[in-house]
Each structure stands twice: as C-alpha cells, then as structure tokens.
Write a structure and sequence with these properties.
Shape: elongated
Radius of gyration: 26 Å
Mean pLDDT: 75
Largest sheet: 8 strands, mixed
Structural class: alpha+beta
Number of helices: 13
Number of strands: 26
Low-confidence stretches: 68-79, 97-130, 174-189, 229-247, 314-334
C-alpha cells in the first residue's frame, strides 16, 4: 500500500551513527535483549523485537502516542512519529495501528499482494507502518527508506565478511571434532544454519532443511554454475528481487541453489530466504500471502517447478545437460515425468504399476504411473491411538501404512471401472505394485482428511525405522532385485505440530554426517535418535542403504 506517514516518520539519516554495532539481522531488542526478529524504528533508530517475540517494537510505537491522547490533535500533531519500522533481516518496512492482526486483515494483505504483482513499477521490498497496519511500497521524496535499506545491507555484508574470516581462523586451529560449540550449557552445531520465518513460512523452511540433507540432491544444485540476475553497480552485492524485475529474470533453480549453499556454510546467523520466497510467490500463486500452507503440497509444487525449469534451462543454457554428464546418475535410474529426465526424477522418481480387475468378466487392465512420492493412508483401526505408549491396542507402523497402500482394494460405487470388454462401468478391484524404486523414497502420511465441512488431522503416532526399511515385498518383481537394493535409511522427517492444516507449526529432523539435528525455523539444535523416533511424522525421506544391512528392518 501507499503509506502517507513516511514523510513525517522517516527522520533518521541513512548512515546514522546511532545504529548498533554488528550485523543488523543479529541486533538485540533494547528492552528484552532478544535477537529474534529485530526491527529498527525509522524515526529514532532504536531496535526492538517483533510482535511475535515480545512485541516491544509495537509497544515502542504505542508509548510514543500517549502524549497525544491528552489534547485535541492539530493538523501538525496528527503526523505521529515512530510509526514506521524496518525488519533488520528482510529489510521490509511496516505501518501498523494499535489493533492486532485478524483473519480478515490477512486476506486483505493477500489481495493487496496479488494486485501488486500486476504492477511492474512497484517495488517488492515492502515498508511497514504502524498506523496503516500493512506493508508499504512507496518511499519518501528523498528516497530515505531505500537509502536506509542499502546501508543496512552494507552493514550486514561487512559483518558477514568479518564473521567468515573469524570462522576460517577458528577452523584452521581446531580439530575435526571441534564442530560443536557449547552455548548456555547446551550443545549446538556450528555447521548448521537455520532459516528465518518470514511469516508462517515454517512449511517452506521444514522442506528446505530436509532437502538440504539429501546429499546427492543437494550437491547437484550446489555444483551448478551461478546465474547472475543483476549486474552493473549492484554486481557482487547481496541481491534481493524487486517487483520491477520481469518474469524473465526469475529463476527458482538459482534461488534454490543459493539457499542450499547458505545452509551449510557454518553461519550462526539464520539465513533469510526472502528471495526464494518471492520467486515462489511469482510462479506459485497458491502460496502468495502469509497464511499457513501444507508442507507436502509445497514440496510437490517445488519439485515439479524445479523439474520443469531444469528441463527448459535458464538464459538459453540447458541444465539437463549437466545431469547427463553426471556419471553417478545412470540412465537406468532415470524416471521421466512430463518429458526429459532431470535430477528431480533421477533421484525421487519411481514407477507404480496400477492393476484393475473387472469383477464381472475378469478383464485385467495395467497402467504404469511415475511418482515422486507415495501418499499413504493411516489405517482407520489405528486412528484413535495418539501416542507410542498408549495401551489401547497395537501401535501403527509404517509397514501397516505401506500394506494398506498396496493391498487389494475393491472400488466402491463412486469409483466404478469402465470395462472395455463389458462396454460399461463395472465393479472392480485395484492393486498397486512398485515396479521401480527411487534413490530417495519420499513417504507422505495422510494426516489431514475432509469431513462434511472441515479438514481434520489424524494425530496417530506411526512407528518408523531409522535404518533398514525393506521395500522388497512391495515390488512387482522382487526376484530381480539385489539383497540390499531395496533397503533404505532415514535421512529426514517433517513434523506438523498442531490440530489443523491451516494452523500449527512445521519442524524437521535430519541427519548430517552421522548426527541428528532438529530444525525449528531459525533455531537448530543437536538431538538424538530416541527423540527422532518419537516424532509424529508427516513426511519421511528415505535414502538408499549404502552400508551393510541394518539390524532393525521394518
């Protein structure tokens, strides 16, 4: 929106000496000293935490308005100060009234965002004003907001460079086992980097962290040559997209590559994926706005669009050619979906055989379908069991879900099969077989289902193995598979906390170099296997077993 309060609220010099020292994304709130979600007031340059931490930025605005309530406001007094603040991580700026957020306001923001996407002359990096309660896209006549933004970027880049040199010296003087650092008595990993929550983007963060720990998939993108989207005076600086850039300058592959590269560089400061999120908004309209989204749905959209872009190449250079040169991805392991194979289908792609038998004449129909993941129902007899230690009946296991997926099923009246021999729809049975297993087996547990009017969550605990998941009994031709070619080890787990798909929170567990980590947005902590197996999994990522067969097969 166009905010009318900028001229009276943005009063600080762009290179003000009042700014704190260090990286802006790590500045601490002047009240509670929290370094989560720091916001800087563009009137007095004081730093406070956001409303989803302790809300001191909003309190700072409220306190500045108290003197105005004791007398009538004149035209000059109506120009209230301290109304505009800037996010020190994403450089977005905001204007907010005393009231809090509500669902209607969030819907209005989504509609505004969609309107902005049609106007190529408006900048993407928003400004936030506490009186308008919305992101602001305009600037002062002197361009002070943009100047402050560029100054904060320079401070961030300088701090990042200094931090990188410091870590390099630290690594040179440390041993191979010195990758752990004790902070406040708890052990955290130096190498792992969190992802900042940009506003209900935990669904995206959990998927990105999971994919970053699938080594073969992640390494492919990190080894891709960089695509320079900007040049001239801005070359070499930290880039962010603006709405004035055309669609031709948007590359999901490039922003995905940058994000993966940033996640394991050893930075203690959480990485802000705003550039990737902007590209997601640009090419995936379903994910515009700041509502909670389904992590599995996002993963499918992400993989599909990565696949399509890799097929077409970027700037005239086909990146599928790089895949063909990669000797580790042989032709026999490729699964083509919608055209030529890419790293997406080569790693996640498998093939299902769908058998349908007419119960009247016995005619059998076979169809082969490629897949990137398998969506498994949680059997109805287990849906009342919510925890592993609950004594009401047996515990549901991943094997029960896989068996339910591949067992012979009689189709109901709403799914009658059109029999070509009978020339009409007939009752029939259906059965799935796996003809080809992928290198990375992605299993999605269907925890959300529709009732009459609501989408409810199945909160059943499902037991899953960390090693040795044996898929041989679900293969169409198991005799043609080697003894260990059907074994999988767990690489990552996405967990949904909460009661509904439109609410709650997503986190992820993933293993890296033999250690398990818990990724909760910007917070990354070491964890253990006992904690991982107790999680109520939503999405499971299994990779092909590389060592000898494990002892705990499914």
């Amino acid at each position: 929106m166009e905010c009318p309060h900028l001229s009276s609220s943005v009063c600080i010099a762009p290179d003000s000496a009042k700014f704190p020292n260090g990286s802006p994304s790590s500045w601490c709130c002047s009240v509670c000293r929290s370094n989560k979600s720091p916001w800087v007031c563009l009137t007095c340059s004081s730093v406070h935490c956001g409303r989803y931490v302790n809300g001191h930025a909003k309190k700072h605005y409220e306190d500045a308005q108290v003197p105005l309530t004791n007398h009538k406001k004149s035209e000059k007094q109506d120009k209230v100060q301290h109304t505009v603040c800037m996010d020190c991580s994403s450089y977005s700026t905001y204007c907010d009234p005393l009231c809090g957020r509500c669902p209607d306001l969030e819907r209005e923001k989504l509609e505004v965002g969609e309107d902005f996407s049609r106007n190529e002359n408006l900048p993407k990096i928003f400004t936030q004003s506490y009186r308008c309660d919305d992101f602001v896209v305009n600037d002062t006549k002197l361009g002070l907001v943009q100047k402050v933004r560029e100054h904060l970027q320079n401070l961030e880049n300088s701090a990042f460079t200094a931090d990188r040199h410091k870590k390099r010296k630290l690594l040179e003087n440390s041993t191979l086992n010195s990758k752990l650092l004790k902070v406040n008595g708890s052990t955290t990993a130096i190498c792992a980097t969190g992802l900042r929550n940009l506003g209900n983007t935990c669904f995206m963060n959990a998927i990105l962290q999971s994919l970053s720990n699938i080594e073969q998939f992640c390494c492919y993108f990190k080894e891709l040559p960089a695509v320079e989207l900007r040049n001239g005076k801005t070359a070499g600086r930290r880039t962010y997209h603006t709405r004035s850039q055309g669609d031709n300058n948007v590359s999901l592959v490039e922003e995905f590559r940058k994000t993966l590269c940033a996640l394991w560089q050893g930075s203690q400061t959480a990485f802000s994926p705003e550039s990737l999120f902007y590209v997601v908004w640009k090419i995936m309209p379903n994910f515009r706005g700041y509502q909670q989204q389904d992590a599995h749905e996002f993963m499918r959209y992400l993989l599909d669009h990565l696949h399509l872009e890799l097929q077409g190449g970027f700037n005239g250079v086909s990146r599928s050619a790089i895949l063909q040169e990669n000797s580790t991805l042989s032709a026999s392991n490729k699964c083509c979906i919608n055209g030529a194979s890419t790293v997406v289908t080569a790693i996640f792609g498998g093939i299902l055989q769908n058998e349908v038998n007419c119960l009247i004449c016995g005619t059998e129909s076979r169809k082969f379908d490629p897949f990137l993941d398998l969506s498994l129902d949680i059997p109805s007899q287990f849906r009342s069991k919510r925890s592993k230690n609950q004594e009401n009946g047996p515990v549901c296991s991943l094997r029960d879900c896989l068996r339910s997926f591949t067992d012979l099923e009689e189709l109901d009246e709403t799914e009658l099969y059109m029999c070509h021999k009978c020339k009409k729809k007939q009752k029939s049975t259906k059965k799935f077989w796996i003809q080809k297993l992928p290198k990375v087996l992605c299993l999605h547990l269907k925890r959300f289902h529709w009732t009459a009017y609501l989408r409810n969550k199945v909160d059943t605990y499902v037991e899953f193995p960390l090693r040795g998941l044996d898929m041989k009994c679900y293969l169409l031709e198991p005799e043609n598979s080697g003894p260990e070619s059907c074994l999988y080890d767990l690489a990552a787990v996405v967990v949904h906390h909460g009661s509904g798909v439109g609410s709650g929170h997503y986190t992820a567990y993933a293993t890296h170099e033999g250690r398990w980590f818990h990724f909760n947005d910007s917070t990354v902590t070491l964890t253990d296997e006992e904690t991982v197996v107790k999680a109520k999994a939503y999405i499971l990522f299994y990779v092909e077993h590389q060592a000898k067969a494990g002892s705990d097969k499914l």
